[in-house]
Amino acid sequence: MSYTARLAELGITLPKPAAPVASYVPVVVSGGMAYVSGQIAFADGKIITGTLGKDVSLEEGQAAARACGLMILAQLEAAGLLDQVARVVKLGAFVSSTPDFFDHPKVANGASDLMEQVFGGAGQHARAAVGVAALPLNAAVEVDAIVALKA
């Protein structure tokens, strides 16, 4: 089954891929790998903003991370690569948080769980989940990806 078909089976509709907000491209392919630039979370066309530990709950953060994952998939689809994914190699999750917020890995699970849901075992990946003082456009969460492509 193709991953496009898997998304349909799961009832997932991908968002319109976001345009870059600075001097970069959304996806670069090199050496059989796709590197997806950091994607921020959108809901109903608006950026999910705020700070975990202050004005964004853990559950809202997880939903934001999932939305970042959906945007990663949308960028892969726009590049014609979604059905070429062999494995999700690594995700990097950046969580805008207060100094006393320590559940970054739980927030990042929103994106990680989506990858496994869509890609099965090939969606299991290495990961970093870090807290940061601020993200572009006051986003609550940003996630980037490294993806191995089929030969």
Keywords:
alpha+beta; 151 residues; 29% strand; 60s Ribosomal Protein L30, Chain: A; 7 strands
Please characterize this protein's 3D structure:
The chain is an alpha+beta fold and 151 residues long. The chain has helices at 3-10, 58-78, 104-119, and strands at residues 27-30, 33-40, 42-43, 46-47, 85-96, 126-132, 141-149. It has a single domain (3-16, 27-149), classed as 60s Ribosomal Protein L30, Chain: A. The chain is built from 3 helices and 7 strands; from the N terminus they run H-E-E-E-E-H-E-H-E-E. The strands form 2 sheets. A 5-stranded mixed β-sheet has the order 1-2-7-5-6. Helix 2 packs across helix 3. The longest helix is centred in the middle third of the chain and has 21 residues, at 58-78. The mean pLDDT is 97.
